[in-house]
Amino acid sequence: MRKRFVHKSAASLAALALSVALFAVLSPTAYADGGDPPDFLIVDDGSSGGEDIENAGNTSMDIPSSGITLISKEHVAYITGSENVFAPNENLTRAQTAQMLYRLLSKTVPITKTFTDVPDGIWYADAANTLGSLGVLRPGKTTFQPDDEVTRAEFVRCVAQFFPLREDAEQFADVPADSPDGPYLLSARAWGWLAGFEDGTVRPEQPVTRAEAVALLNRALGRSPDKDYIDRAHPVFYWDISPDNWYYYDVVEASTSHEHTGNVVTEQWTSHSPADTGISTGFHHWDGWLYYFDSEKNDVVRSASVGNFDFNEKGRFTSGSSELDQLLHNIYIKQTRDSMTQEEKLRALYVYTRDSFTYLRRPSYEFGVLDFMQTDALDMLKTGYGNCYSYAAVFWYLSRWNGYDSRIINGTVGQRKSPHSWVEITFDGKSYIFDTELEMAYIKKGEQINMYKWTGAGFNYIK
Question: What pTM, to 2 d.p., does this model score?
Answer without folding.
Answer: 0.84
